[in-house]
Amino acid sequence: MLWKIAWRNLWRNKRRSAIILTSIVIGVIALIITDTIYMGMGNQMLYNQIGIHVGHIQIHKKGYHDNPLLEMAMNDPQIVNIFASRKDIVAYAPRILSFGLLSSSYSSSGVSIVGIDPAREKAITLIARSVTSGRYLSGNATREILISEKLAEKLEVEVGDKVVAMASRLDGSVGSEVFRVVGTYRTFNSDFDKVTIFIPIEMAARMLGMGQRISEYVLKVKRIEQTRTIRDELRLTLGSEYEVLDYKDILPMLVYQVEMFDEFMYIYYLIIGIALVFGIVNTMLMAVFERIREIGVLKAIGMPDRKIFWMVILESATLGLLGSAIGTVLGYLIYLPLSHTGIDLSMFSKSLESFGVGSVIYPVFIPRVLASVFFSIPIFAILGAIYPAIKAIRFQPVEAMRYV
Amino acid sequence: MRLLIKLAWRNIWRNRRRSIITILAVAFAVMLTVATRGLQLGTYEVNIQSVVRLYSGFLQIQRPGYQDNPTLRKSFPYTKKLRSILDSQALITGYAPRVYADALISYRDNSYGTMLVGIDLERERKISNLLKKIRQGREPESGRGNEILIGEKLLKNLNAQIGDSIIVLVQGFDGFLRDSFCKITGTFRMGSDEFDRTVILMPIHTLQELLGLENRVSVIAISLEKLDHLEPAKKSLQKALTPLNLNVLTWDEVMPSFKQSIELDNIGGILFLAILVIVVAFGILNTVLMSVTERFREFGIILALGMPQRKLVTLVAFEILFLVFIGISAGNLLGGLVNWYIIHHPIEFSGEFAAIYEEYGFLPIMTSTLKLHIFVNTTLSVLAAAFVASLYPLRKVAKLEPLKGIRYT
Fold it and tell me: Which residue among B22, B111, B286 places its CB closest to the CB of A168?
């Protein structure tokens, strides 16, 4: 009954309701677009890092993460059987990691050397797909090297040229090997590109004197939500000799930052909500004053204050809900094409690359966005109606009926 | 006209409650805009100042092509002639030559790729804060063997102590690899994780000798009194240096990604405020429309009595103007107070929040500014929004026929 009255009241002054509805709709659309863009940006930052290098889970000898030394190496080839036996791990790859100096005949650069098993690495990271000229590494023991476009430019080398890599060996002496550049790559993360080079794992082992030892295993899990559970289970299986870290352990800053985006969004909702409240208070006040005589009559024939209060609140809540619904539908319609084409921010791409995002942002709509809108906007509408509703029950019936 | 103004003023207080709420909405938007813009612009300026003083200098002299491909081969001689040109420039308050070179360093079993930065300690002291960031130990001296300063994080990563010697492997100017021992005399902490992990500071003569560079340098960093001098100083210096085939770059050309992250943040802020203003504009539209339609009978009678329609429209326009103006003034005042408070009590972050800021090379601090253009721009944009919002109600008044008005219910 109250709902019905509220609903009909809403349409007695169509223009007024339409205008306040429009402002709610615009607020909601803006919130949805902003929220999905930030979600997309956060996800891209995280997934790019995971996809470029970090993977879902990394396994090292205990203490390696704090102090990544060559001698903190693992020498247990049987360990892969554990990964292979689990259905929730879709791929694993061994790596040898070190720092070194890469020189061409013109110039040299400090680099982070990554020795990979090209076939296995391909199943986990995006490097194979990020090759921009030449090709990806072809085998485990070839003298091939994959460097970034940036580094190639700096060293003034092209695909086919020779470079010399140098690094400390496990025994402390300096090892060096000649490599041929077979390809260049480019990722969304310019800081990563600046320093990272890829060589076949067996060449890395030979150059660094590692024998059968490797620095880390990187794993890809079937569903990213399971990462934590798998990490904990692997910790139990592998025992205290190894450290098992997931991407949240390895990229704590980034994970925290993505969470911070979420918190910023709540402030956005709050501010837009407050701005809407002013409009809603005004509209509902007008709606109440316009009907003073009518409310007086309702009171005189015995309608309890409580019901009159709720009648006003419900009218406003309906506005809020309706506005949220229309806004969400329209916002989603705007979001849909954007999520396919992405939003090109290439004018800021340098900065986005150093954030590791990439210059095209693909907004992401998650259920949380829907929940945020439907949880916040109707509540602001109700808050905005409280003062007008109190006004409505404060009238004396007789005075109200005489009001002109 | 005076009568109209008087009428308009009285009209807005006929429905006091509604007017106050509208004023509050406008004031809220204006205050928030002024405070947000102040916070953004003030924080950018502090960051630019600090980054410029720490890393790039306000201006930098480079050989053409060095920015895209910073190698030793793009270095240039630091000559007496160059110095006399720099000394004669009025706006330049100081300058310091620097050499940058990549190197592999090793200590016991650990080796890292690092960047060697050769600095002229005396000159650097005058233009940058680099040497103020020493945490432990002392400054390196030239001529006393190869003394170096390294980042706190690098020292920790190397597992070394102050006083230890490390092996530095570099590719010299001639292309040959050279190695030599360098002694750690102290550590520094700049705040930027990347910098503290990879940079080694040393006297410029030591590095030039190590690389066989003779008197060549990679860049010359230049300091100015303030950011406003950037463009004139660049123009006049570039003119003098063009014959020497040298480029003058501003800090944002040297650090494009830093500049762009500021711009990205800036645009994000502006977009958000634009949305806020639009939402508030709809609030204004609603109020004005209501107050107008509510008085259609009254307007009808006035028109019937012979008031020109033009004047009636002016009357309503004045009402809107009063409302918006009071709102804008109150908002500017409150926003200004907020900014003033923040300038005197800057917001400092700590913990993880601070760490994120430092990771991207920003100071973990937020401050504000009272620059006039913030108030002017905010006022103009809210006025523009209010203008657009009142077009429809004003049109309704302009089209009102007296008889229809009188009969309007």
Answer: B111
Chain centroid offset of residue A134 CA: 32
- Are A266 and A347 in a shared domain? yes
pLDDT for residue A71: 84
* Residues A221-234: tens digit of each pLDDT: 999 889 999 999 99
Closest residue in chain A to residue B292, using alpha carbons only: A16
- Chain A residues whose CB is inside 8 A of the B257 CB are 190, 350-351, 353-354
CB contact (8 A) between residue A112 and residue B278 = no
All residues of chain A having their beta carbon less than 8 Å from the beta carbon of residue B17 are: 285
Contact (Cβ atoms closer than 8 angstroms) between residue A73 and residue A214: yes
Answer whether residue A195 shows pLDDT above 70: yes
Q: Among the three residues A214, A239, A264, which one is the final residue of a domain in this structure?
A: A239
A23 contacts B279? CB cut-off 8 A: yes
Q: Is residue A55 a part of any domain in this protein?
A: no
Cα separation, B204 vs B121, whole angstroms: 8
| Tokens 């006022």 -> residue | B379
Closest CA to B360 of B199, B192, B195: B192
Boundaries of domain holding A277: 2-49+254-402
Query: Which phi and psi (to 5°) does residue A347 adopt?
Result: -65, -20
In a domain, A249, yes or no: no
Range list of β-strands (E), A169-273: 174-185, 196-200, 216-221, 242-246
Residue A57 included in any domain:
no
Residue A354 pLDDT level (bands cut at 50, 70, 90): low
Residues A126 and A200 in one domain: yes
Residue with the bigger pLDDT between A263 and A327: it is A327
The answer to the question of residue A246 being in a domain is no
Q: What is the mean pLDDT of residues A263-288?
A: 88
Q: Are residues A96 and A222 in the same domain?
A: yes
Contacts of B344 (CB under 8 A, 6+ apart): none
Reading the block at residue A313, the tokens are 């609140």
Structure tokens at B87: 């000394």
Domain boundaries, chain B: 2-52+259-407, 64-245
The answer to whether the beta carbons of residues B29 and B276 sit under 8 Å apart is yes
pLDDT given for residue B361 in this prediction: 65
**A187/A142 same-domain check:** yes
Number of structural domains found in chain A: 2
- Strands A216-221 and A57-61 come out as antiparallel
- For residue A177, the model assigns a pLDDT of 92
| A188, A206, A239 - which closes a domain | A239
Confidence (pLDDT) at B63: 94
For residues A164 and A105, what is the distance between their CA atoms, to the nearest angstrom? Answer: 9
Chain B hits for A172, CB-CB cut-off 8 Å, are 108-109
Domain identity same for A213 and A275: no
Question: Do the beta carbons of residue B131 and residue B138 sit within 8 Å?
Answer: no
Residues (pLDDT < 70) of chain B are: 359-361, 409
Q: H/E/C letters for each residue in B331-376?
A: HHHHHHHHHHHHHHCCEECCHHHHHHHHHCCCCCEECCCCCHHHHH
My answer on whether A18 and A112 are in the same domain is no
Tell me if B264 and A99 make a contact (CB, 8 A cut-off). no
Shared domain for A74 and A202, answered yes or no, is: yes
CB A62, CB A240: distance < 8 Å: yes
Three-class SS of residue A173? coil
Residues of A within 8 A of B72 (CB-CB) are 107
Chain-chain contact of B356 with A257 (C-beta, under 8 angstroms): yes
> What does the pLDDT look like over B148-171, one tens digit per residue?
999 988 898 888 889 999 999 888
Q: Does B20 touch chain A (CB under 8 A)?
A: no
- Same domain assignment for residues A205 and A317: no
